[in-house]
Write a structure and sequence with these properties.
Blueprint: H1 2-12, H2 16-20, H3 29-37, H4 47-53, E1 59-63, E2 66-70, H5 77-93, H6 95-106, H7 111-132, H8 138-147, H9 152-161
Antiparallel strand pairs: 1-2
């Protein structure tokens, strides 16, 4: 059975602990994310490069005073789908991701655009975890958001008080 073989390989992989720590990255999405990042840490020079390679980074087209932001179509489709599906799952279980997604929806973004934007944010977090060989830590991420003056921690605190 291919699913069993995939799980055996995933469990035996030296970086599995990193990808298992990602929220909502269970037995299907965990291995898919690990394959997208790979084992060669020199392959990508930045999280931006990961997002561009897999079609998650937005494409900006500008001419004069007009700017259009669109989706990247030339990319490995299955990997883009993996990041997109994972972000949709994370929004359901991770409070900061849910709040970020909600903020985007309130600004008028469509469902897929908001999920892609969440995936873009997740890729930056995961890239750091992958580069430093550390587990994902939601509390550390929230502290970094506070330190950098993000609106998310304040919005989450306000919701907790209700």
């Amino acid at each position: 059975f291919p699913e069993v073989a995939i799980q055996e390989k995933f469990q035996a992989h030296e970086d599995a602990f990193i990808f298992k720590s990602f929220p909502a990255a269970g037995p299907v999405l965990g291995p898919r994310l690990l394959v997208a990042f790979g084992t060669d840490r020199q392959r990508f020079t930045s999280a931006q490069e990961v997002a561009q390679t897999y079609g998650i980074a937005p494409v900006r087209k500008a001419s004069g005073k007009t700017e259009v932001i669109g989706m990247r179509y030339r990319c490995p489709k299955f990997a883009r789908q993996s990041f997109h599906e994972h972000a949709a799952c994370v929004v359901k279980v991770e409070p900061w991701a849910r709040e970020y997604y909600q903020m985007l929806r309130e600004k008028g973004k469509g469902y897929h655009a908001a999920v892609r934007a969440t995936a873009f944010k997740l890729i930056r977090i995961y890239y750091r975890c992958w580069q430093t060989k550390t587990k994902y830590d939601a509390n550390a991420y929230m502290e970094a958001l506070k330190k950098n003056g993000s609106l998310l921690p304040g919005r989450l605190a306000a919701k907790d008080k209700k």
